[in-house]
Amino acid sequence: MEPFPLHVDDAVLADLKARLRNTRWPVPAPGEPWSQGTDLGYLRDLLAYWADGFDWRAQERELNRFHHYRTELDGVAVHFVHERATGGGGLPLILTHGWPSTFLEMLSLVPILTGRGFDVVVPSLPGYGFSARPARTGVHTRYVAGLWHRLMRELGYERYGAHGTDFGSAVTTYLALDHPAALVGIHLSNLDIPPYTGPGSRPLSPAEQAYVSRNAEWGRAEGGYREVQATKPQSLGYGLTDSPAGLAAWILEKWRSWSDSGGDLNARFGCEFLLTTVTLYWVTGTITTSMRDYYDNRWTREPLRPDDFVGVPTGVAAFDNYFVDEGAAPREWAERLYNVVRWTTMPRGGHFAAVEEPGLLADDLTSFFHRLD
To answer: What mean pLDDT do residues 6-11 have?
Structure first.
């Protein structure tokens, strides 16, 4: 386990700027802006700033205010941030991001939580940013949960809490299923794993039926990315790895669609945050390995069994102010799989809750875990 200050070579940044300035643009899409994907005018303006205004070194300095480390787990080099509670002796809490995000999403929570008595660990998922991904299939969220449990043990934590969103929600769920004695509790800001609803399960409630129907409708309208990434991520990866314009367009359309942004990305997140997120994918060359999460979790992860149930106390912060498949689930849907002891319907915020509404999320995390500790 070694300190790992972040630093990107000058040559990588120079190559990025050259590619940005030589972008080959498509014609504008007809119809309403964003209706067929990332708006051309928005992306042109953003890439002009990325090439000639954005200061990666300033962002790098800010990121290095946190304590970064890398360690090897099961032969995998894993990057993580580790910050201890301000007063010492904090409750350990591991926070896991999803796609198309990075560890950066969780950093807004860190100073709040360390000031409230938590030791905070924020790892990068395998194949994202500065974490490597094994060169094989089967790197699904249940496998990652095993890595995270080993990481917390290596840090000296016998019992700990966990929070996650998107794929991080699935990782957190499997931590509780596979290592229940180690988990004080788990907290989720969305539900990534559908519960078992096959033979022998109770009938769906009207609210659950509406949720399933809404998911199917969303999949027809918005789910193309998922089908490509779960079937042919390598083919897509060539273009996104070679073109920063393509990479930004692919990632930021999801940040706009899945967040409570009102359609205004820059006002909600700011150019600096958005470009830091995309730059992390670019300089590490990890967009293709990140997309393999969709392939591995569809084809190599075993489905839940009828008797699978998370007995660990579970808190859910329902950030439902957007229209996406994982959001807006009714509580009874969650209670099929989880021992839900806290359910908070949030007044605002979407898929990227940790950066959209860090105060609301930190308050819910604090109330939930302090009740259990």
So the answer is: 98
* Phi, psi (degrees; rounded to nearest 5) at 227: -65, -40
- Residue 334: pLDDT above 70? yes
Structure tokens at 59: 């962002």
Enumerate the active-site residues. 166, 294, 351
Strand partners, 183: 160
Task: Give the separation between CA 310 and CA 215, rounded to whole angstroms.
Answer: 23
**DSSP β-ladder status, 2-3 and 160-164:** unpaired
- CA 201, CA 203: separation in Å to the nearest integer? 7
Structural domain range at position 282: 2-372
Q: Which DSSP string corresponds to 344-369? A: EE-SS--TTHHHHSHHHHHHHHHHHH
Q: Read off the pLDDT of each residue in 358-372 and give the average, rounded to a whole number.
A: 97
**Per-residue pLDDT band at 298 (split at 50, 70, 90):** very high
Q: What's the pTM?
A: 0.97
Q: Return the residue matching tokens 């016998």.
A: 158
Q: How many domains does the chain have?
A: 1
Query: What is the rounded distance in angstroms from the CA atom of residue 112 to the CA atom of residue 6?
Result: 23
CATH code for the domain of 36 = 3.40.50.1820
